[in-house]
């Protein structure tokens, strides 16, 4: 247990989550890396948001590839029922996304899509003014397709008027040994330019060299 009273998660857990929303939200960061390093910042103290964030960074999450398809179908239906009722902070939703393995969640989300005709993310876009809903959607996006999630964070950081160095550095540094190759592929697919070229065009000096080295640029 750390100084804030949170139990450290097991080394196998992996989740990265980042949200920004001006002065109101400031910044929320949750990063749990497979190597066992982890860190988080909770600058959004409302209890309803802590109800989701705390389990995400403390609950045990199995890291294996085994999938229970019966469970996936059952929990996909639970998620659909709760989301249809707009019970976004229901204990069952939080339990499922905070404890199930990445492989199990993938099967659950796939069944949700196949059985209910659309992706779970689409059903979480109903109320764009609901801050908790935005947080839940971001968490599921990160769990479902982390490479797409972090590509978006990088794209917004680089294309922002005046590079957002905090976001750019955080993603590159924390994902360098986790899934950077997939993120680079997604960035190229989404933007028609490689990530190393985008970084080189938007940064300079030792900072540029550090970022390029971290993403595996061979000439860095």
From TrEMBL:
Cellular-component GO terms for this entry: cytoplasm; plasma membrane
SMART domains membership: ANX
Gene3D superfamilies, alphabetized: Annexin
Any Pfam family the entry gives: Annexin
GO biological process, one term: response to cold
Family: Belongs to the annexin family.
Domains: entry comment: A pair of annexin repeats may form one binding site for calcium and phospholipid.
Xref: PANTHER family: ANNEXIN, ANNEXIN D2
Protein name: Annexin
Alphabetized GO MF terms: calcium ion binding; calcium-dependent phospholipid binding; phosphatidylserine binding
UniProt cross-references to InterPro entries, sorted A to Z: Annexin (IPR001464), Annexin_repeat (IPR018502), Annexin_repeat_CS (IPR018252), Annexin_sf (IPR037104), AnnexinD_plant (IPR009118)
SUPFAM superfamilies given in the database record: Annexin
Keywords of this entry: Annexin, Calcium, Calcium/phospholipid-binding, Metal-binding, Repeat
Annotated residues for binding of Ca(2+): 158, 160, 162, 200, 202-203, 208
